[in-house]
Design brief:
about 250 residues, alpha/beta, TIM Barrel, 8-stranded parallel beta sheet, 8 helices, globular
């Protein structure tokens, strides 16, 4: 597969991750905060500094909290304002997703976010994987005019969702790109690409960076849980991105 035939988007949790993603050869970053919650809206400062230090497209996720994708009026008002602020910081597109209580896409809320984006390209994120009927959701995304749909095939990991992903790739119009994400590494991307015929992939490819703090309180957890380490941060590895692209080039 020639390099121009596929696109790699990196889920970047910081300015450092975005810089590494570009160095590794990524086409674009989805900029997030709080990946332990599945990704929330990054700050204005993070968006601004990412644009300052990189030249590739930067798509912030617009998600005010973790958890489900059913938003209150107050939460949605925050999302609309975040789109405005992110545009002012130089965002090149947005990653969105809102659902109704019955698991269908909230057309009205998504339409309002898209309108607020003023023509910038839109990715519908993995709220898609939480929909009750993915084929109907695909149709609605097409009507909304989203550019990409990020999906794992409604499984925890994309490698287990290849059957649905393949169907979505087959059914998607030329205007909607099915972007495969969740658990994609340099070790399985070739298998997933061949199985699904997908041409767009969403990866994180992070590695651990240990804190330089010398004084530590190992009995206190700012996140309230031992599962969130206090003295280890995870950032995208440029080398892993480069390796993943090499694997795709060999297909």
């Amino acid at each position: 597969m020639n390099r121009e035939e596929f696109e790699i988007e990196v889920c970047a949790n910081s300015v450092l991750s975005a810089i590494a993603a570009e160095k590794g050869g990524a086409d674009r970053v989805e900029l997030c905060d709080n990946l332990y919650e599945g990704g929330t809206t990054p700050s204005a400062g993070v968006i601004f500094q990412t644009k300052l230090h990189t030249s590739m497209p930067v798509f912030p996720i617009i998600r005010p909290r973790g958890g489900d994708f059913l938003y209150t009026k107050e939460e949605f008002d925050v999302m609309i304002k975040d789109v405005e602020i992110a545009q002012n910081m130089g965002a090149d597109g947005f990653v969105i997703g809102c659902l109704n209580p019955n698991g269908s896409i909230d057309y009205e809320k998504c339409s309002r976010l898209i309108e607020a984006a003023k023509g910038l390209p839109i990715t519908f994120h993995r709220a898609f994987d939480m929909t009750a009927d993915p084929l109907k959701a695909l149709d609605i995304c097409g009507k909304l005019g989203v550019k990409r749909i990020l999906t794992s095939g409604q499984k925890n990991k994309a490698v287990d969702g290849v059957k649905l992903i393949s169907k979505l790739v087959q059914l998607a119009s030329n205007d909607v790109v099915i972007m495969v994400g969740s658990g994609i590494t340099e070790m399985n991307i070739a298998q997933i690409a061949i199985s699904t015929k997908a041409k767009a992939f969403h990866v994180s490819l992070r590695e651990n960076y240990h804190s330089k703090m010398k004084f530590r309180r190992n009995d206190i957890y700012m996140g309230g849980t031992k599962e969130i380490p206090e003295y280890i941060n995870k950032y995208t590895s440029a080398e892993k991105v480069q390796q993943l692209i090499k694997y795709l080039d060999r297909i």
